[in-house]
Amino acid sequence: MLDVTKLLEEIKASPYEEIQVVAPHCGVVTFGDLAVGTRVRGVSGMWKEKPGTLLATIEREHNKKPIHAGEKGEVTSIETSLEGRFVEARTPLMVIRHFLSRDEVLRIILQRTLNLFNAPERAKYYFTPDVDKKIKASGSRSVTVHDGMELFIMSRMKREVSLGYSGPDGVIYAVYFQHNENVDAGQPLIGVCPQEQLPLIEEVVARVQTEWEERE
Fold first, then answer.
1. Is the pLDDT of residue 1 over 80?
2. Is pLDDT of 200 > 80?
3. Which of 80, 82, 81 is nearest to 33 (CA)?
4. What is the pTM (predicted TM-score) of this model?
5. Contact 193, 171 (CB under 8 A)
6. Alpha-carbon distance 169 to 99, whole Å?
7. What is the mean pLDDT of the chain?
């Protein structure tokens, strides 16, 4: 049985994630005026065209390249000893504490409670035409799936093959892939909810919507 209260309390106990920022490539690092405690903003804009706060610069072959924050949060540590020094790619530079949004909490809970069907390999995925038409008309939760049902078209290196669903019967409660974008192997494509558990899942969603406090 799904324990809604326990799930929410676990996340409330640590309502954030620690994001480690690393050097994208080798070069000389400069942090500028950034300090511990600085609040930073993440990428924004309709098409994610607005970069986040400038965190540092890496100079490589006399070419300075900026490092911007990907998520909003607070800088909790900076490797100040690296200021003005040459660093290798993937060297840890700082840590940003990102407080989870309501949508992020819902995504975490749903991925822990739904039956996930994952991508078997890196490829682009599409629903079969009949299923795609139904989802566009009535939403993903109008589609009931069963084990062995032909559900996806997997496209890789100009080769398309059908892919059947394997797992328990239920409705497609969440869709995790985007049209015409590659999905890495092991990443979830859909989350399926058995019919009898729908009321419990709806309770989770309702409680998060009403109880979760957003932080700036």
1. no
2. yes
3. 80
4. 0.77
5. yes
6. 35
7. 92
Query: CA-to-CA distance for 110 and 145, rounded, in angstroms?
Result: 18
Residue 90 has pLDDT above 70, yes or no: yes
102 DSSP β-pair partners: none
Continuous H helices in the chain: 4-13, 102-113, 129-138, 198-211
**What domains sit in the chain, N to C, each tagged with a CATH number?**
14-99 (2.40.50.100), 103-209 (2.40.50.100)
SS3 134: helix
H or E, element range at 19: strand 16-22
The beta strand positions in 69-186, using DSSP E, are 73-78, 86-87, 92-99, 115-118, 123-127, 144-145, 150-156, 159-164, 170-175, 182-183
Residue with tokens 């084990």: 147
Spatial CB neighbours of 101, under 8 Å, sequence gap ≥ 6: 214
Token pair of 21, please?
Answer: 């920022």
Q: How far is CA 74 from CA 50, 108, 122, 152, 174, in A?
A: 19, 21, 34, 41, 30
Contact, 100 vs 11, CB < 8 A? yes
Residue 128 in contact with residue 162, Cβ under 8 Å?
yes
pLDDT tier for residue 47 given thresholds of 50, 70 and 90: confident
